[in-house]
# Entry
Amino acid sequence: MRRRILALAAGLAAACLASPARAHYPYCTCAMENGQIVCRGGFSDGTGAEGVTLDVISYDEEILVPGKFGPDSTVHFERPAGEFYVLFDAGPGHVVEVDWRDIDGLAP
# Structure
């Protein structure tokens, strides 16, 4: 019995070592839609961003609109006054910034 458990453990370890690490990168796009800015986010492996932080921040580093992606991996908000950027923060190495000038349909 003990040999069987050790063989199983060794097989699982080998399978884990043989599997290549798969990185998944975040993405975030924002556009004007029906008078609001809509940001859509997710990861390159196809997973959504539900519950992940997406904040709208002024150039003075003040959070103008705190938020999180909804079940459909979107966030909707009114355009803030002045210059700002959108910060999608899913943790270290998983951060995307979208400057207000890069938002589709938002004229500078």
